[in-house]
Write the structure tokens for this entry.
Amino acid sequence: MPVEFFDWGNIMNLKISLLLGSVLGLIIIIQALVRAIWLNSIGILLIAIALIFVTVYISTSILLKPYQKLIVQLQQFDTSILNGGVKHFQDYTAINNRIARAFKKLYKSRKESITLNSSSLVHQSIEEYLFQDIEDSSDQIYVVFQPKVNLSTGDHVGAEALVRWENPKVGFVPPSEFIPVAESSGLIHSLWERVMIEVCFQINKWKDLYGEDVPVAVNFSPMQLQNKNLVSQVNQILEAHSVPNKLIEIEVTENAVLTEAAINTLNQFSAAGFKIALDDFGKGFSSLSYMFDLPLDYLKLDRSFVDAIDKKKNGRELIKNIITMAHNLKIKVVAEGVEELVQLEYLRECKCDIAQGYFFDRPLSSSEFDDKWLKARGVEMDEII
Ligand code: C2E
Ligand code: CA
Ligand code: CA
């Protein structure tokens, strides 16, 4: 599918001005020719022909040079995209910015509109590819699972589902880049459905494979919680896959739950037996007030707090107090982004309930997850298959 990365309208304007310039030049040259023939002078005729060559040479080299350079850049850009050579969104943006700069040089007076055009076109093309992959049920959209570990027993106690998108044209795009696009374009609902169905499929597979329930945390976007039918839509999917509600943890970030509609939705989820987790706790400013209104089961301590354990002056005290406060309110604490032993040891000392992070595992594909989970229980994969 060809994608227009640039404002071809601008190029058309350039073409029109070149065309007008050439027509004017031609008129002057033809006039000189007619005069030479009229006067029947070979000398003037030769001078006129030489003038034609000089004019054509000067106009093409001066007028067309930036235009040709730009076209070459555009072609390289298009080819690299089409060949799947642009592996990452950042490269993609960098190239687009480079071309935007070329445009700026060419159209000094239109700086603003060109910058805007360039970023919105990146957004637009990401959206087109994402839409296509969702529509096609492409396996370029998939879910990975990061294990969660009980800190007092060391057992795996569940997982967080994290969506991934890898398209041959745009490369790997991190969720922090494409989820905002999915939200603003309305694709988030279809994307979330894909994630939810995949989670149900895995929960059933794990039940068959391990003979035990694996609770899975699913991230919900702020926008989704405004949807009054969300709880019944989730219920429908779970019923269709015979997955009990208690196995799904609804993860919401604090900026997601500001509105009354969102709080209502979460109360309905909780009443229906789902678990509720407040994600990224501590990242924003008003987290504590949510303790009044939300039916919280888990509080997910943001990675920046875990990072502060051995780096910030009051890091340890703050974490200890947050954990104590949550426990007093009968809320369990999940520490995110645990990467080092010193962090793990301190969290354990503070009686933090659950942890996840690179120290244990990165988010894993479903088969990697099987391997880890079963190994942790002393079962080799080949014994099952
Ligand atoms: P999150 O929900 O806070 O997810 C945790 C993020 O931290 C994940 O990034 C995970 O890969 C990363 N992470 C886990 N352990 C560590 C660690 O030890 N160190 C470091 N540096 N990072 C760690 P990811 O997968 O890139 O997701 C980013 C965000 O995108 C998520 O943050 C979540 O807000 C959003 N997201 C991911 N999947 C979904 C989804 O299916 N739906 C929605 N609505 N949002 C999602
Ligand atoms: Ca999360
Ligand atoms: Ca988080």
